[in-house]
Here is the input.
Amino acid sequence: MTAKHSAGVLVYRRVGGMTQVLLAHMGGPFWARRDAGAWSVPKGEYEPDEPAEAAARREFLEELGLAAPEGEAVALGEVRQSGGKVVTAWAVEGDLDPGSVVPGTFGMEWPRGSGRIREFPEIDRVEWFRLDQAREKIVAGQRPLLDRLAEMVGG
Here is the structure.
């Protein structure tokens, strides 16, 4: 079985000499009560025939309901998450208001075995975090993306 591939955009900004990143808390019932390790770069799966950077920008729009900032996209490379999914990400400097996010939704049977399909937000909130905070919040497999961003921006 081949690994699934996701692409995402890690938006960052500099505030008072500190770098902050915009992370999305995963939606749905499995993540509702979790905080540490339940945040992610806004991302989504794509097919092999779609350019990964184009997929990253498309998925950002689908997940947040807002276009990714227009700035230069700097490749952060790939990471492999514990479930085997390969995530490719780009860093883009910009500023977004988390309050303006309108997340996309997905349907799933819930409660499991009930036969009822419920709609859940892809993400249930978006927040800015300092890099040190983000390391505690983000899915463990994506932490190297934060490290690469820190090297890139010098912090």
User: Anything to note?
Assistant: Strands lie at 5-15, 18-26, 39-40, 43-45, 74-80, 86-93, 105-109, 117-121, 123-130.
